[in-house]
């Protein structure tokens, strides 16, 4: 798909890379499936960069609008699963 990842230009290059990895992990959950622990590590790093709920919601809504992939539903599925599970979204 062709779309841009939502980023904040105040972030460092490392933070931008880590946020993009998080959005890519959501894509992977929808396209192939992803290990729960791998996804949760990406999510925890994302939350270090974006600690506020309002900014998280704005970024994730923008990502969903462009990609069709729901960050909220993916995080919810990951939190409801057990360590070692594979997250596969539909």
UniProtKB/TrEMBL annotation:
<dbReference type="InterPro" id="IPR023324">
    <property type="entry name" value="BH2638-like_sf"/>
</dbReference>
<comment type="similarity">
    <text>Belongs to the UPF0223 family.</text>
</comment>
<protein>
    <recommendedName>
        <fullName>UPF0223 protein DFO73_1189</fullName>
    </recommendedName>
</protein>
<dbReference type="InterPro" id="IPR007920">
    <property type="entry name" value="UPF0223"/>
</dbReference>
<dbReference type="Pfam" id="PF05256">
    <property type="entry name" value="UPF0223"/>
</dbReference>
